[in-house]
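Bench log. Compound arrived from synthesis this morning; before running ITC I wanted a structural hypothesis for how NDP sits in the protein. Inputs:
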Amino acid sequence: MSKCYRSELVGTFGNPIDENPTGVVEEAAFAAKGLDWRYITMKVEPGDLGAAMAGMRAVGMRGLNLTIPFKVEGIKYLDKLSPAAEIIGAVNTVVNRDGELFGENTDGKGLLKSFADNGVSPKGKTLTILGAGGAARAISVECALAGAKKIYIANIIKDQGEELVRLINERTDAEAEFIFWDHAIAIPEDTDILSNATSVGLYPNVNDKPNIDYDTIKPNFVVSDVIFNDPRTLFLAEAKKRGAKTINGLGMLVNQAALNFQIWTGVEAPIDVMTDVLRKEFNL
Ligand code: NDP
């Protein structure tokens, strides 16, 4: 009987990438499901993405994660996009379907799953999103596609924030409005879900928090954060103090990793194993 010594390969291209924990989570999931798959975390220099994508095709990698700074640039090397990835204009997951590269964005979908796990739905709700970068685009578009009624986008750079507002208004059924974030802004009173989608609070700057008027957070708000390192952010601590329900960035991270696992392998992700590994990584 012949034995197959060839493993299936997935991985991530990013820069910086050294502190990205996704590989540990995916490898634990492959092991738990008895799959001979490997996940390699790779640093790609800016300007080398085209060569890296050609290499990925050449060695028949089954899929990829694209992370900072390649989520937008990566699109030009793909053959097809999911409808949401096309609207968001960024891809974090690539699957190789017999040589055809398909791009998806699981960032916002991961947060929606984390919301659902906490009994929260954006349907018919008003959201205030802090930031207008990649994560904010994914979250706001997915929430709009999931039936959110209204989305406020607060951003320091006016053009970037207004561009996202235009995108939501033109490409989804939600109504979007821009908030110029040039001071400690008040969170709109009609907010149901407040979501930090900025990088404020990310390790090593764990003592930073978004510059908002925290006393405008009400007990009926659901407050979520994208920051997963460390997930115990000051932003969420302040929201909790005001009686709001809080959802940290770990759920988003593990759920998008689980979605990626399923997209690549077609096998249901062992979400409990993945969550445990991540908790251990962050000493939680
Ligand atoms: P980007 O660089 O695309 O966006 C960062 C955003 O943060 C921009 O809107 C930027 O505004 C804003 N920002 C930065 N500093 C400040 C500040 N001091 N005050 C207000 N706004 C600020 O990054 P991403 O969107 O890709 O990632 C954002 C964060 O989300 C990262 O920390 C990342 O680790 C996390 N993330 C978490 C995921 C998860 O699964 N939990 C998944 C994906 C991302 P401006 O452009 O105006 O400067």
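What the model suggests: The longest strand covers residues 8-14. The mean pLDDT is 96.
ITC booked for Thursday regardless.
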